[in-house]
Amino acid sequence: MDIKKLRQKLLDLAIRGELVPQDPNDEPASELLSRIHEEKLAMVERGELKPKDVKNDTVIYFGSDGLPYEKRADDKGESTPIERAIRKLPSGWAWTRMRMVARVEAGKTPGKDAFVDEGIPYFKMYNLRNQAIDFAFHPQFIKPEIHYGQLDKSRIHPGDLIMNIVGPPLGKLAIVPNSFPEANTNQAAVVIHSYSPEAPIAWLFYYLSEMSEINNVSIRGSAGQVNISVNQSREMFVAIPPLAEQLRIVDALDKYLALVDGIER
């Protein structure tokens, strides 16, 4: 049995809406995305976001010609065609961009004098192992004043998603456990922080684990290196199912992939 292909097949079925039954009574994902946009506007009012983080929010839709278009969420300006082909989605699903549902920040590497024997955990890509965080493997720590100062924007919180953007390999992902303290990571990764509990990080984790969108935007550099820029990470297309279906898919994947892991062992 090819365990890798079995795992990939499960993820492929999940992102195409073919892993669990659909329910026509589920609230469509477009309503979910609209609520997230409204929450971001409220965050601007509270001073938690800058206006620039919201003013370019967009809505993606298919026109009467069957082609994909994008328009601003505030209905200002004209709709523009999406140059890249994106597939039609199951009923109730919606396309969006990563920046619509999550804040994406680049990791940073501080100077050598920032590192200490005890302090704030600092991840490197070797700590992302088997799609989880293994901080026991060569742990490093930085000074708290660096974490809250120079590296403030790249702070990692419990529940955030970490994705490496320099490879090979690309596609190393991990959700920070709720039991883990705040941390930082280097510039080979981005930190993906959901704007709303209604945009579960678990769905983004599984969606990106399938690798198709990561491969679509990756750039091959010299000496075989591949990478994704921070801006490319923010502009990634993400297929969003209705919230209730997201939860069903995540629950099914948790169960099936645990069985696959058991077979592999």
Task: Offer a quick outline of the entry.
By secondary structure, the chain is an alpha+beta fold.
Name a few traits of the molecule:
four-stranded mixed beta sheet; globular; alpha+beta; 265 residues; four-stranded antiparallel beta sheet; 22% strand; Adenine-n6-DNA-methyltransferase TaqI, Chain A, domain 2
Q: What is the strand and helix layout of this fold?
A:
Layout: H1 3-15, H2 29-45, H3 52-55, E1 58-62, E2 68-72, E3 80-81, E4 94-97, H4 98-101, E5 102-106, E6 115-116, E7 120-123, E8 128-129, E9 132-133, E10 140-142, H5 144-148, E11 161-164, E12 166-167, E13 173-175, E14 184-185, E15 189-194, H6 201-209, H7 212-217, E16 219-220, E17 226-227, H8 230-235, E18 237-240, H9 243-264
Parallel strand pairs: 7-14
Antiparallel strand pairs: 1-2, 2-3, 4-18, 5-15, 6-10, 7-10, 8-9, 11-13, 11-15, 12-17, 16-17
Helix pairs in contact: 1-9
